[in-house]
Write a structure and sequence with these properties.
- This protein is of the alpha+beta class.
- It has one domain: Orthogonal Bundle (Cytochrome p450).
- Helix content is 49%, strand content 13%.
- It has helices spanning 26-30, 33-42, 59-67, 102-113, 116-140, 145-162, 169-181, 188-207, 218-227, 233-246, 249-264, 266-274, 279-290, 321-324, 328-331, 360-377; strands at residues 3-4, 7-8, 46-48, 53-56, 72-73, 142-144, 295-300, 304-306, 309-311, 316-320, 378-383, 388-390, 397-400, 402-407.
- It has a five-stranded mixed sheet with strand order 3-4-10-7-5. Strands 6-14-11 form a three-stranded antiparallel sheet.
- Strand 1 (3-4) and strand 2 (7-8) form a beta hairpin.
- Helix 7 packs across helix 8 (188-207) and helix 9 packs antiparallel against helix 10 (233-246).
- The radius of gyration is 21 Å and the shape is globular.
- The chain starts with a strand and ends with a strand.
- It binds 3-methylbenzoic acid.
- The site of 3-methylbenzoic acid has 7 residues, from helix 10.
């Protein structure tokens, strides 16, 4: 067995087309749409020789890989490394990097802690925080969309919602970025992430402890399930770690991408202002068109197939959300257009299947709050300089977004 990047290097079955590209090259990450087009055009599944693995980017095959959790497992890692072969870089997540039946229990605990009821009870706090922040930003007029808004808003509500007593806003955003970069190949981005997490991880671990959390937050609700005997105390700490891994940089990216979409498409902002009932469907369209996570991996746990092509056990498969979310076969000939009234049912910005984002209610709640406050106060969102995409092995987001907010 040949090893590349810590997984079994496969030879593709005859008939699987080859795509000779490095999907994690920084130039591709900065502008991935040609890669997405090639990936879909070649077939339901392609072979990536650089990493000796497969990739799917058509809507149908990507959806299949996400929803067929029996053949495409998560317990061997959702990045390029196969946990059966190499050591995971941190103790694996007990909700992300796990299969049923182990997944079932932790998923139930997290789903309860992040239920629609919980998010509904947070809605007033979110709305007030959004109004205060947007009032302040509109008075500035020129803002840095990433730090002043996309980061500032989740940081003004999410840590309190979780009940964190420890605050280190930089670490909270950067930890998520590191976790997602660690899913990639052994490139500059992953090596920098692993170096930096050595600094951050002790702080994260400490922040997850029961006695560092307020008694009324989402974190405390998870520990209450430990008291009830559903999970152990150590498992509760690990699930709080999942909140901090997946709950900050993702919403930061979603909000930043929303601002980008509206700056790029002022007519769509006008539609939202004319009809604020479009705020919720508009965010679904942001998730489709500008997906905060571009790629997740799976591993074939058994011999299986994709689109009629045989896939051997141990094969790593990249499920390219960004490509699937732009598939004209699914979304029509204007798949590359951002349209707030599209109502893109089935968009895979939150993934699909049993591992579909467990925090999607709170993510939608945060975004609805900030867009509602903006719609009421901002006539136009304009670029005030050149936006810059942040290279990441899994996140699709901006790291610089100079904006002018034109007051209503
Ligand atoms: C969906 C996701 C991304 C990153 C980390 C985790 C989950 C986790 O459970 O730690």
């Amino acid at each position: 067995m040949q090893l590349i990047e810590g997984h079994r290097a496969i030879l593709p079955a005859p008939g699987i087309p080859t795509l000779d590209i490095d999907p994690f090259d920084e130039a591709v990450l900065a502008d991935p749409f040609e890669y997405f087009d090639s990936l879909r055009a070649l077939g339901p599944v392609v072979y990536i020789p650089k990493y000796a693995m497969l990739a799917v980017g058509r809507f149908a095959s990507t959806h299949r890989v996400f929803t067929d959790h029996e053949n495409f497992v998560s317990s061997r890692g959702v990045g390029l490394n196969d946990f059966k072969i190499g050591e995971p870089w941190r103790p694996p997540s007990i909700i992300l990097e796990v299969d049923p039946p182990d997944h079932t229990k932790t998923r139930r605990v997290m789903a309860r802690a992040l239920s629609p009821r919980v998010v509904k009870d947070l809605a007033d706090d979110f709305a007030r925080a959004a109004e205060v922040l947007v009032d302040w930003l509109v008075a500035q007029e020129r803002v840095e969309g990433v730090t002043d808004l996309a980061e500032a808003f989740p940081l003004s509500v999410f840590p309190q919602a979780v009940g964190l007593n420890e605050r280190n806003d930089r670490y909270l955003v950067d930890y998520g970025n590191c976790v997602f970069n660690a899913m990639g190949p052994d490139n500059r981005l992953r090596r920098a992430a692993l170096d930096y997490t050595r600094e951050i991880a002790p702080w994260i671990t400490a922040a997850c402890a029961r006695d560092r959390l307020t008694p009324d937050g989402i974190g405390a609700a998870i520990y209450a399930d430990a008291d009830a005997g559903e999970i152990t105390e150590a498992e509760a700490a690990m699930l709080v770690r999942s909140l901090l891994s997946a709950g900050v940089d993702t919403t930061v990216s979603g909000i930043g991408n929303a601002l980008f979409c509206f700056a790029e498409n002022p007519g769509e902002w006008d539609k939202l202002r004319a009809d604020p009932s479009l705020i919720k469907p508009a965010f679904e369209e942001v998730l489709r068109y500008s997906f905060p996570v571009h790629t997740f991996g799976r591993t074939a746990g058994t011999e299986t197939e994709i689109g009629g092509h045989p896939v051997e056990e141990g094969t790593k498969v990249l499920a390219v959300i960004g490509a699937a979310n732009r598939d004209p076969e699914k979304w029509g000939p204007d798949a590359d257009r951002f349209r707030v009234d599209r109502r893109p049912l089935g968009q895979m910005g939150f993934g699909a299947g049993i591992h579909g984002c467990v925090g999607q209610n709170i993510a939608r709640g945060e975004t609805a709050a900030i867009l509602t406050a903006l719609v009421a106060r901002v006539k136009r969102i304009e670029f005030d300089g050149t936006p810059r995409w942040r290279p990441s092995n899994a996140i699709h987001a901006l790291d610089h977004l100079p904006l002018r907010l034109v007051p209503a």
